[in-house]
Specification:
By secondary structure, the protein is mainly alpha-helical. Helix content is 73%, strand content 0%. The protein has helices at 2-5, 7-16, 22-41, 45-63, 75-90, 97-104. Helix 2 (7-16) packs across helix 3 (22-41) and helix 3 crosses helix 4. It is flat and about 50 Å long. The mean pLDDT is 91.
């Protein structure tokens, strides 16, 4: 939420990391706010996980250079990446909005 409400700061943080493209920051904000909301509610669940998986893969492999230990490690990004992949494989839960929508239109 902080990246969305302070978008200018987010863009400046991306510039400090060598990513001088506001579109990249916008895609990260989209993934971390709107796609995360889709995962939480179960709305377009697997589709919403794709940007989150890409986001965490970029964070871990490119930003943190795949380091799991030491200073500037990507341990948290790796953990989120693994969790998002597991969520993709297991699918939405019993109370996902997708299931309610499908039942409504059957």
């Amino acid at each position: 939420w902080g990246k969305l409400t302070n978008f200018e700061t987010t863009v400046m943080n991306f510039k400090s990391m060598g990513i001088d493209n506001p579109l990249a920051a916008g895609l990260v904000v989209f993934a971390e706010v709107f796609c995360a909301a889709g995962v939480i509610t179960g709305l377009l669940y697997r589709l919403a996980l794709i940007p989150l998986i890409i986001n965490m893969a970029v964070a871990f492999f490119l930003v943190h250079k795949g380091k799991l230990v030491g200073e500037g490690n990507g341990e948290l990004a790796f953990l989120y990446l693994v969790v998002f992949v597991i969520l993709m494989l297991t699918g939405p839960g019993k109370y996902a909005l997708d299931k309610f929508i499908v039942r409504k239109f059957k």
